[in-house]
Amino acid sequence: MSRTSTGSRQVIRVENGFGYGVVGADLHVFPDRGPVYLLSEYGPASVPAGQDAAWLTAQPSRLLNARFQVVDFTGRDRERTALAAWRDGGGPRLSATWLHGPGGQGKTRLAAQFAADSAAVGWKVVTAAHGSGTIQPSPGSQDLRLDGASGLLLIVDYADRWPLSHLTWLFSNQLLHRSLPTRVLLLARSVAPWPAVRSALEEAGAGTGDSALPPLDERGGELEERRAMFAVARDRFAACYGLADATAVEPPDHLGGPDFGLVLALHMAALVAVDAHTRGSRPPKDMAGLSAYLLDRERRHWTRLHENRLEGLDYATSPSVMGHVVFTAALTGATSYADGTALLNALSLEHPGRLLADHTTCYPAQEPGAVLEPLYPDRLAEDFLALSLPGHEATGYPAAPWAADTVGVLTACDGEGAPPGYAARALTFLASAAAPHRWPHTVRHLEAVLRGDPALAVAAGGAALSALAAVDLDPAVLEAIDAHLPQHGQVDLDAGIDAFTRRLTGHRLAATDDPAEHARLHQNLGFRMTRAGHREGAVAATEQAVGILRRLAAADPAVYEPELATALAQLSECAFRADRTRASRRAAEEAVGIFRGLAANDPAAYEPGLALSLSHLGHGMSQERRQEEALSTVQRAMGIFQRLAVIDPAVYEPGLAMTLAQAAVYSWRLRRWADALTSAERSVEIIRRRVAAGPVSPASGFTRSMTVEESDLAVALGNLGLFLWGARRRDDALAALREAAGIERRLAAVHPAAHEPSLAGTLTNLGTYLALSGHGTEALAVTGEAVEICRRLAAGSAAEFEEPLRKARKAHETAQDRLTGAGPRSWTLEEHYVTLLNQDEVWQDAQDRRHRLDDMEPRYCGNVLRFLLRQADDLFGALVDGLAVSPEALGRWEGEDAEAWLARQPLAIALRRRSEGKPARPGLCYCGYPIQPGWNHDHCYPGIIVD
Predict the structure, then answer these.
(1) Which single residue of 179, 251, 620, 729 has CA 20 to 30 Å from 599?
(2) Which phi and psi angles does 190 have, rounded to 5°?
């Protein structure tokens, strides 16, 4: 027998496909598109093997490519110090920072230097690249084990271009949930997606922060720092060019201008200054001129290669055609050979294979097998797009006659109406080029694309919508795009929709003086902000709408009271989501009052709004532990939705299901077990049917938020499982909880931050009931899964997840005890309150054996009663907290202590009767009527008054 090594070894063998693996981390893969993202162990950048300074200077843009890090990092001392303090500071084990700034600000280089600094002090550094395109990663395996590391640093570039669901998959990776300190640095141009990303991170228990990388002109001594950065870059570039005396290239006198607040701008100025010096020419003074100069050098290199074909060089593409291919690559990004060939064929470019080969000579692919590697850095590629399109004022750089048509061809949908896979990149790069203070003529080319296909902006995703929001587009184009936005929203689009809606709302507000229209615009913005996670902003926007409509309604109630009530209903929901319970309840109460008066005269028009407002009011009352009032309120809403659902089930059944679910919970808290179970079963049945049918367009503004999704079904099933268990329908309870757990597992795989906490709670309940039902092995596995999730969540936010972790561990211990036959009996809340206290027939002992009270010895009954009364304080406290009710809702009288309350419960009364030698049940019920077959006394209780 051979002895295996204690190290980890991974063998990847691929036949007719592609192989990529990671050790010590998860790998999320699309079945049809490869990895969702690619994790790689950090390594310092370097020039490709076999290439020298001459290769770099042949195309000066290579000297600016952050991949090669030609220029030593300098400056940004404050930012480096702040990042180090964040990395090494206390707080949550998992922490994330969103570092944002314009392109060329130096984010990538700062992150690379921070990565090197972190690696030098023992941290494991990993990079994440979005991988849902056609280019596969380099074959092989990435060793991401953390053995011996001081901590983990994960760097995510272009984070604002990732769909939110893909980022949440990344945040769920087991690599981030070890015991080591873990930091996630997300780099982005835009801050728009951050609130939704932050919410996902916070739900995962991570600490969060953001930092805008300031331009160099926002700091003290900026001109001297700019000169220093210029000098460092100049010296490195001079060395590459073989210039003996770099100081012969003096800093230009225009470095104090606003264009040179970017690190990239200083590097471009230094590169052009050195290159021009070696050629005896004068460098340009502005950013447009610098870009044109560098792009001229690119074109000169293409020309030289083309001329050298006569000397036997394997290269055949003319400079004009190469410009067409480079333009295409800037819009599409790197792709596979097959897709690259199809793209060039679509542009009617001859000999695509030859063109791709020659383009790769100029721009070697970062990944093996890829073609159409784009021009770097991104800002230079954006400038190339703009200078190629007609309409700019840069002299000496003629536009390309094919450029506008090429944009149209490359952004067109295919024969089946599907947008190109690179649509997000194409629109984002065009929008970045068209941003204020850059290339204004690019706006009309972007508008031409969007006028022809406004839905493309939505198909391109949230990052593209955010980029478009920063461009001064024609309001008519914005309106055309807005018509294609999903009315309810969509998780991967919500951040972009929010940024886009803010831009459009500004135009719309400026275009009208109508206060009512202003109110509607603020209300719509509030809805979009709520979806995007801007909860306080949503409250502020909706409050503006309410304020305007309140003034209008005071002057003309007949016209504006309906809109005021609708805005108040939305404000109630916004405030509830922002944890402003009192404000939510007040808004709901006012909305109910208005809608009630309106519905009295026109029920068909206003009863839906009344029902929705009553539902919101029920939430507020329940939060204030006014369960009886909450139930009564939501029952009125339920009655309305029930009538409306008969007429239009697709629109109003979700509202009915929502109120049924509320009624079930409130009834359970009020000890109305049969009612709770009936409502929960109906709610599950309706939600299941509506989820299967799919979403429908909302019929009105106030039904916009009434949709049901799989997550709602999982919650309803989880509650149903608890009620079924309390009703002693054990098998049905387990089936409901198993189904809920299955749904939440699927949802957590896509959006762990949003669904793992709920999954952990469902698994804890399921595991506990499995153990009590004799399914020990399954219970152990399920509770183990719950403990693992809760442990991971608690590592990031101990205060929030300490109690769920305690419950999961207790359930796991119960499962272990039941499997081994050891340990005391563990009672659930429902068993304490339903199976035991609220009945007077049986006692269930520590071994889960049931005894009829009338068959038990009086002395034993007295011992059991004393045992219960000794636990009165703990038991009553657990019921108040676990059921989220007030002591009064449990029937505790004013001035009564927990022991006296417990002594009045049916089980305690029956035990006392038996301890005195009497039958457990008296001949008459608390209501004064006989206890005999055919009489239902389920709702009777001590002290009941019967009229």
Answers:
(1) 620
(2) -100, 150
Give yes or no for residue 757 having a pLDDT over 90: no
Are 159 and 197 contacting, i.e. CB atoms less than 8 angstroms apart?
A: yes
Query: Could you read off the pLDDT of 219-263 as tens digits, one per residue?
Result: 445 777 788 888 888 888 888 888 888 888 888 877 877 777 777
As given in the structure block, the two tokens for residue 132 are: 């849902």
Residue 763 has pLDDT above 90, yes or no: yes
* 3-state DSSP of 869-915: HHCHHHHHHHHHHHHCCCHHHHCCCCCCCHHHHHHCCHHHHHHHHHH
Q: In this predicted structure, what is the pLDDT of residue 146?
A: 82
Q: How far is CA 717 from the centre of its chain?
A: 24
Helix (H) or strand (E) holding 38: strand 37-41
- Tokens 């603020």 found at: 522
Q: Which residue has the higher pLDDT, 797 or 82?
A: 82
Q: What is the 3-state secondary structure (H, E, C) of 727-770?
A: CCCHHHHHHHHHHHHHHHHHHHHHCHHHHHHHHHHHHHHHHHHH
Q: Tell me whether strands 182-188 and 842-844 are parallel, antiparallel or unpaired.
A: unpaired
What is the H or E stretch that residue 565 is in? helix 557-577
**Dihedral angle at the C-alpha atoms of 425, 430, 435, 441, nearest 10 degrees?**
180
**Helical (H) or strand (E) element with 123:** strand 123-130
Q: Which residue has 């029956």 as its token pair?
A: 910
Closest C-alpha among 100, 203, 119, 106 to residue 161? 100
Place of tokens 């022809």: 452
Closest Cα to residue 196, out of 510, 531, 481? 531
Tokens (6 digits) for 82: 């702040």
CA distance 795 to 869: 38
Residues 412-421: b if buried by 16+ CB within 10 A, e if exposed: eeeeeeebbe
CA gap 400, 289 in Å, rounded: 18
The answer to whether 378 touches 425, Cβ cutoff 8 Å, is no
Q: What is the pLDDT of residue 365?
A: 83
Spatial CB neighbours of 69, under 8 Å, sequence gap ≥ 6:
44, 45, 46, 109, 112
pLDDT in tens, 825-884: 555 555 555 557 877 888 876 555 778 888 888 888 888 888 888 888 777 877 776 665
Q: Is residue 123 within 8 Å of residue 151, measured between CB atoms?
A: yes
Distance CA 275, CA 271 (A): 6
Residue 489 CB coordination number (10 Å) = 18
- Range from 2-11, 84-93, 288-297, 381-390 that averages highest in pLDDT: 381-390
Residue range 564-577, pLDDT digits in tens = 999 999 999 889 87
pLDDT of res. 8: 43
Amino acid at 826: S
Highest mean pLDDT out of 126-130, 131-135, 415-419, 595-599 = 595-599
Task: Tell me the helix, strand and coil percentages in the chain, rounded to 5.
Answer: 60, 5, 35
Q: Supply 179's token pair.
A: 């015991």
Alpha carbon distance 434, 386 (integer Å)? 8
Could you give the C-alpha distances from 237 to 18, 234, 472, in angstroms and in order?
39, 5, 37
| Beta strands 842-844 and 850-852, pairing class | antiparallel
Mean pLDDT of the chain: 82
Judge if the upstream peptide bond of residue 251 is cis by omega within 30 degrees of 0.
no
Rounded Cα distance, 833 and 836, in Å:
6
Average pLDDT of span 515-541: 90
| CB-side neighbour CA atoms (13 Å) of 460 | 32
pLDDT at 816: 83
